[in-house]
Amino acid sequence: MSRRLGLPVLLLALTLAWSSAAAWELRIDDAGGPADLGARVNVALEAWQAAGAEFDEIDRTVLVRYASAELLGPDALSLVVTGGPPGVDIEVLVRADAGARLNDALVIAMGIALGGSPGAGILEPRLLPDEVRTPAPEDAAALAPGRRLPGDVTGDGLSGFADLLRLAESWGQRGVNLPADLDGDGVVDASDLEILREHYQFAPLDDREAEPEAAEDDADLPATSPESGSDELDDPAFDDPEDDPDDDHDGDPESDPEEGPDDEARAPERPGTPAA
Amino acid sequence: MTRTATRTASRAAIVLTLVLPLLAPDAGAAAYPALTFEERLELAEDIFVGRVTALDAEVRDGDPWTLVTLQVETWLLHEGTPTDVGPFEVTLAFLGGQAPGVPPRLVAGFPTFELGERVLVASYGALARAASPLVGVTQGLWREEADVWRDSAGEALALDAALRPQLAPDGDPESIWLPALAAHLSELRGEP
Lengths: 276, 192
Prior knowledge:
The structure holds 2 protein chains of 2 kinds. Chain A is of the alpha/beta class. Chain A folds into 2 domains: 136 residues, 3-Layer(aba) Sandwich (Collagenase (Catalytic Domain)), CATH 3.40.390; 99 residues, no CATH class. Chain A contains 10 helices and 6 strands. Chain A has a 4-stranded mixed sheet with strand order 1-2-4-3. The longest helix of chain A has 14 residues. Chain B has a domain of 128 residues: CATH 2.40.50. In chain B, the strands form 2 sheets. Chain B has a 6-stranded antiparallel sheet. Chain B has a two-stranded antiparallel sheet with strand order 9-10. The N terminus of chain B is likely disordered. Chains A and B meet through helix 3, strand 3, helix 4, strand 5 and helix 6 of A and helix 1, strand 1, strand 3, strand 4 and strand 5 of B.
């Protein structure tokens, strides 16, 4: 695949990647369409930057390229796809003849590349006639890139039972930027569980022995229906004995109602086999 | 494995069992022009009510594609598929999914399907090679939820005051909108 990197975007990518331990890398391939693709992506990224989006916490490689009209079909201006060529985490496929509408499509695509939840707010896919998408500070604040540690699903900086619980709740989910999708392949599955297993942090033996008796009582869990399962999991008796017995402030509202809801991470789920 | 680790693993197995039936939602993403209901009807080559009977995957040019096979229950418009000997099945192919031998890929916002579910599909026809064969990428799909059929944006099939099909926040039952939609499509296509 040919690579003709737009200079502005290349400079921006280098600027963004310069001092951060996280590697945000942007690749532009404008083969097959207007040569200003890099500049357009740059405009979209600058719009997000102006709204306050931060890049230095993002560790992913994004490729933006033109796709054939046949693949995009009659309607799609852009598609955001997990994976791609080797080393690419997210591939943004754009329409070469999209005209001015491509700018709005790129704002949406870059918002997702920056960690946004697809479909929410400014990332709503349907573009109305004459609509212009400009990220606002609240849109930028809603991005949740976060440089999480391997195996850290909840974002609390640890890899423990709360993460296992969240991963289990998310099992089978498909999407982009799912917290439990630890390997970023778009699916919460055994490969994510394996990453969590590798980084699972068990508490020292002394801590376990010092746990309150109540934590020992949950070894034999009562049979529960799926409907009652989440309620059971809210029960303090389900608190992981590896957590600090005085505080399970793990950032996970599922295990601590006082920590507040996390609507994005707990979006309602639809049973089904993802088409894509 | 320590006692605690054993217990944790045991609990994890239970949790996994409890949540396995819950899978992903449809989530909008990508970008495409919003289409009105009339535009969707006019652009579609096929419109039908069908039931999902099979979910498969195949590899095309190194990418996984998901194949959704539907048993057609009612044809409302039939121009795009290569045969009209019914009843028969239609297979819709979507870019993305999991297929043997290639890494999984996922297109943000593409619909999910469940075996056995009934859907109303407005598509560009079985021969389309687009990443999504649905009209408007995702806009040509309505799902049955408690006798109301909604698209990915939550708009439901209903009838207006003149008894013509439309999209509205509150929907009408299939028994009401289906014949009205069939009649409306015949009118749109200039059929007697």
